[in-house]
Every structure is written in structure tokens, then in C-alpha cells.
Amino acid sequence: MDFKKLIIESGKQLIDSGFTIETWGNISVKDDETGLIYLTPSGMDYCNCVSEDVVVCNLDGTIVEGNRKPTIETELHLSVYRSRPEVKAVVHTHPVYSTVFSCMGEDIPLLIDEAAQALGATVKTANYALPGTKELAEACVHALGKDANACLLQSHGAVCVGETMDAAFKVANVLEVTAEIYYLIRSIGKPYIPLSDKNIEAMKLFVKHKYGQDK
């Protein structure tokens, strides 16, 4: 697979999806065969990036290819990969509705079937830390835990993970839709009806073993 091309295309997808604006947000992917991490460059327009702009590093952060500065959140990405070996892609977004809840320091529950299937666990808000710091990386890893596929960064945005880039973007989509629904429920002023733990587990098993053509 051409991982540099994947990063370039995913950067454009990040903008086209409305998950961020300007040069905010960042993306990475892990090559399981080599253990190398491919990252978006810092502060560059994703629509104008080319393969030579992608930065490649080891899991310890040592840059092995590329002349650009990597995303300021490199340590966050690497910390997620070190903590969750099954993760192969990380997408850091700045979506509107999800960020509303991050600014309130609130978690987003699994209140719809799609959330139960894709998000893995309640989407927790990580304690505030400055962008690009080790403290933010540690807070992110703590909020994700071992089961969640997304977390919120207080007053900042969201981090979504997956076993593929498509899976990570699916998580980002489902998270933002869930956040918007939760926002609308809260604006009406009535409580939502929670899904039971039993039904949440059933949804996870359904998408893992039954949903789609190859299962």
C-alpha cells in the first residue's frame, strides 16, 4: 500500500468532510509490516500537500523520512499506537457538535445503535492540556482506554481510531452524528432513553460477525 498517498487523500477527506478547517486536525497511519508511522506535516494546507510532505517516523518518534516538521500532535498519535497495538489509523478532528461537549467537559453516551456499533464505549472527554504536549497525549490515551474508538479533548476536538483509515473516518462520522443528536435532545430538555449494556454488546457482536457481505 502507498501510505503516503493514503495520508494525502485522507487529509483532503478531512477538509471535505467538514471535520476541521484551515490546517487544523491531523492524521496518521501505521504500516504494520515495518512499524513505521506516516504523519501529516505541521501547518500545511491539506489540499496542497504532496507525497514528499508526508513525514515518516518510528514508534519512538525518530524521523526516518521527510524534510517537513510533523504534526504538533505527533506524540499523541504515537502514544495511541503504543497503547493500542490493534490501531492502524488515527484521525484528530475539530468537529462542531463533538467539540461543544468537549468544551463542557462532558462525555457522549452510546445513545444510538450506530454509536454502539462503531464507537466501542462511551466517548469520554480527556482533561485539558495544551496542544502538542506530552500531558495531552497521556490524557488522550487515558480517555480512550482499551475499548473506546474515540475520545474528546477538552476545549479542543476529538480523536478517532480504527484498524484502517476507513474505519477511523467511520468512527469520526458516527461520533459527530451522535453528538449532534445528543445536542438536539439536550436542547429539547428531555432525557434520552439509554441503550442497555446487553443491547450495546449485541450491537458490537452484530457488526463484528454479521453485518456486511463477507461475514
TrEMBL record:
Superkingdom as given in the UniProt entry: Bacteria
InterPro entries: Aldolase_class_II_sugar_metab, Aldolase_II/adducin_N, Aldolase_II/adducin_N_sf
UniProt keyword annotations, A-Z: Lyase, Metal-binding
GO CC annotations on file: cytosol
Biological-process GO terms, alphabetical: pentose catabolic process
Keyword Transmembrane tagged: no
Class II aldolase/adducin N-terminal domain segment(s): 5-183
Protein name: Class II aldolase/adducin family protein
